[in-house]
Amino acid sequence: MLQTLKTDSKESAPLLNHDNHVSFLDSIYRPSRPISKLEKLLGLISIILLILTSTFIGLFAGSQSALNRSKGGNKDTIITTTIDPRPTVTTITVPQGTITTTKNPITTTVSTNPTSSVPIPTGKPDRNVCITPQCVLLSAGILQSMNTTQDPCEDFYEYATGGWSSSHSIPPDRASYGSFNAVADDSKVVLLKVINAIPDELPKDAGPEERNLHKVKAAFSSCMDTDTLNDIGIKPLSNLLEELLDIFGPLDVNVSVDTDALTSSSDWSEDWNENYTLPPDLLVAAEKMNFYRDARKTGPITWSKRPMPLAVSLNDEDNFSFDPERRDRITSALAFLHSHGVEALLNFNIEGDVGGADPQVQSLWLYQAFGGLPAKEYYEEKPIFDLYVDVLSKLLIHVTATSTIENSDFEQRDLLDDILTEVDEFVGLADEEESQWPWPWPDKDGETSPPRKPTPPKHGDSREERFRRLAFKVAQFERELVRAGADLEYLFNPHFAYNPYETRKVEKALPFFDLPTYLASMSPRTFPENITVTHPPYPQAVTKLVHETPDYVLGGYFAAKLVMTYAGALGPNVEVRKEKTRLNEVLRGIKKGTPENREDVCLASVDDIVGFIVGREFVKETFSPEAKADAEDIINSIIHAFHDKLPDVKWMDTESAKAAQLKAEAIIPKVGYPSFPNTTDPASLERWYGRTEVKKGDFFGAVISSTLVEESRTWLTLGRQRDRGGWDMYPQTVNAYFSPSDNEIVFPAAILNPPFYSHAWPDHLKYGAFGSVAAHELTHAFDNSGSQYDEHGRLREWWSNATVEAFEERAQCVSKQYSHYWVLDQSGNKVYVNGNLTNGEDIADSGLAQAYTAWQNKIKESGESMALPGLEQFSDEQLFFIAFARIWAQLIRPQAAVQRIRTDPHSPNQWRTIGTLRNNGEFAKAWNCKVGSGMRPKKEDRCELW
């Protein structure tokens, strides 16, 4: 009985629980009596039947949900993918309801909305799904980028990128931020990782690769070591300036404002103040200058063929005579400056002979001088001109403060000048025009120079006042040089700029300059028969200016150009560098005192010094042989698709179409990295940079050495065939280009990264993103710029007149279309796109059609159809266009948007997407857009070229 009571007590214990309830699981795991084998079997069968019943109910519910969706029903579908246990939640509204995306892990819930009239995705649920990590990340990125509350047939840019815009912001130090910036930032992280992993010390048994990397590390660490740079101060630049002045003559600051005819009393005013705001039109002029300087090589532009309204003859009459000694000094000074990469007085470039038999033969081109201000319009803005004078004077004051330039000449002359001024004033000679020093002055080598006739300084003039007068003369001289040059639309237009003359005629047109001696010092092995003069009136204009300008102004001009060029290689707290920064802030419209990003500065400097070595390391980290082969296959397939389409282009006649096919066949695609130098071979890179001296703690020396080597290397190509393995960009550059004179399209490794490309992506995503970039560059070969160069890169007409007229008619359709697009300024007013300016780029964007055709051709061969997880509802065609739109995601400040719309040959990113797709019939078909909707205009309102 006692035992029974105890047992009863145990059985009754669960009734004492707080919930007063026996759970199902408790009954299974803690039965009140032993369970027989038969009971266990029946229980197991019951559980199996329950699972099967639940499964069939779930399948039925799924089918019913799909049926409801097709009828406008309202059911939920939940897709969950876990990547990481730390969640970051993003919510995106879609036309079917709301997508809540939790990244790391990613959980997506789609709630349908029966009232939505937005076209629904048309994907097939039975496709293969790519579940690689790369595809999962891509799918998550696409979901987060989209704003599918927007109707894709009304504003596809907002539909595909609105989510990205709402979840990103513009960094404080930038005017815009977009996909290109994001890829560049990712590339920067890779480069910093590579550089930081390089040992500080070079191993004793180091091979070529280690020695190359040591140069990279030394260049970067020396640039980043601002404490040492600040401690070194101005001395490296002062030493360099002394070399120049040893060649040309001492810096003479004993001048007055009214010494010669350059002076205009209306210019001698102080209009600058700290509250000045740079007019927008000056920023526009600066952007134009930057664009045009790059346009002839890698930037497309609509080159006009209208007759040039300027005199184009080269005046080689000897109207001026120059002292041989002065002529020699000017020649030697220019050779010194040009070898150090300093643009002064005359500029020589080595470029392909686009008008000759073979554009790959490198020829000599003569350009006009460019000033220290961004464009000629800046010289006419009095506050800017006054600021420029002030900055130049302070640069020269600081660079001479601790050097023998001043100690051996300036201080001595100051004391004697003051004495002589007192004497002159006493005897009444100070006002005589012919007043001159009574004896020659010894130079620092003890030799006497001929008597000079500078105007004596006024009694009591300070050092600052004298330097300001010299700076004023220098700025005036530079302004006259800039005024003498051609306007940009003529200077860089190949139809106007290609003016070859015999070298002897150019020599005669520049009597102040010993051209044979200069060429022998720059390129001792080759003497060119011809020189292409980009603006034939310029030699006569510069000759007249030099004839009328005294040596103290020329010397100050040469000194100022050198200091302006190399001020950036000094420490950030060095006064010369601070003055240059002060000027740049105003010229670029940057807030005063905005701190520089030193890592960005130094990464750019390392590119300039040893860029291809850095490129090799970048390729090793981010690029693979498989990706290179795949990208080349994509590009070649697009070229072939375009080639095969040409005979069916109705507005081209048969002969023009055949010529276009020849050009397409001749195009050279380059992907990833150059073969000259061989980026895959450390020994090749070591030879390339063998003469470049890079020592730790000597950043200025590395900059000088790399500049000298690069200038020398360029001049050695004169008269020779260009190596087709060479590039104009480094592998780590996020960009791509078409070179008209080389007939090649180039894609550095850096642009072959998401959202542009991944080797692991399905083909429709690759072709929609990277394929559109490749097709863009290809189409440049046949736009209104590239179409002026034949298959060999020669500047000549290869289309019939009828084809040219038909092309121009369609190009004008594109121009008018884009001229209806706009951006909003800071006040919310519309500023319209200049369709003529953007015409070449807009036409190139239409190359998306070639990428689409190439992808469709590939599908016919492979039959591949690979969906993305969570995006199975979208068809491959729809994802193709989403991938295209995503690469143009961008945020931009209103002021920057207005500035770019006036200067940038590219349309705003929004309209690059919308304008391209409005003209693309396959897009309308993929999204079932109705005629008359925002993304599908009537046929007569669409523009089509290729």
Automatic annotation (TrEMBL):
Cofactor(s) this protein cannot do without: Zn(2+)
Pfam families: Peptidase_M13, Peptidase_M13_N
Gene Ontology molecular function: any one: metal ion binding
Keywords: Hydrolase, Membrane, Metal-binding, Metalloprotease, Protease, Transmembrane, Transmembrane helix, Zinc
Regions that span the bilayer: 41-61
Coiled coil feature spans: none
A single BP term in Gene Ontology: protein processing
Protein name per UniProt: Endothelin-converting enzyme
